[in-house]
Amino acid sequence: xxxxxxxxxxxxxxxxxxxxxxxxxxxxxxxxxxxxxxxxxxxxxxxxxxxxxxxxxxxxxxxxxxxxxxxxxxxxxxxxxxxxxxxxxxxxxxxxxxxxxxxxxxxxxxxxxxxxxxxxxxxxxxxxxxxxxxxxxxxxxxxxxxxxxxxxxxxxxxxxxxxxxxxxxxxxxxxxxxxxxxxxxxxxxxxxxxxxxxxxxxxxxxxxxxxxxxxxxxxxxxxxxxxxxxxxxxxxxxxxxxxxxxxxxxxxxxx
Length: 255
Known about the structure:
Layout: E1 3-16, E2 19-32, E3 36-40, H1 47-54, E4 62-67, E5 70-71, H2 77-87, E6 88-92, H3 103-112, H4 118-131, H5 147-159, E7 165-169, H6 177-193, E8 198-201, H7 205-208, E9 213-218, E10 221-227, H8 233-247
Parallel strand pairs: 3-8, 3-9, 6-7, 7-8
Antiparallel strand pairs: 1-2, 1-4, 4-5, 9-10
Helix pairs in contact: 3-4, 3-5, 4-5, 5-6
């Protein structure tokens, strides 16, 4: 697979000269097109900072981040906003849906902001609703549906414009076990059937076991890497738990 993202010697510092915190310390890795990568680590390991940098919400202190031939570390703020809109999709723990809009309207809004033609919007929205199994709640409002259904709506909204990368920040954090499993199976389908490239930050080993590769952060550096390969998910989960025991990361119940 061709590398889509290249993170090269990235550093991120916060504070001033008398009190500097190094959140990311010379991190380098690649993500291939169509890959499902997880990022794990204990609280304070730098995983959220890394996600914020990859999502263009925050800027690097040093280093480079290449999306194809584009180095976002060198882009101006107004160009970054356009890049984010055209290339990235987001799935957050708290859904970020508008309660005054229906499930369908929340998805449509994402395409409207891109200026897509009305017919294309309707066709694409219907396709996403069916793909994610939420067509029967299309006319309901977010407060009328379950957390799992809200999160699948958030996935549909993230996917509807065909982004090159889906960034997921603790997407199962607010879900019960059954809804979390359904969402993770949805991510797997998105990855396999639509070749969606996904980078997911999670503290949960069960969620991470659905990934094809996991990067473990400790003190702002990549401490370890696991590739699932041909192992079944149960064996991969056990291996993840073993690594977390070394990093001080949080574990999960085996479900």
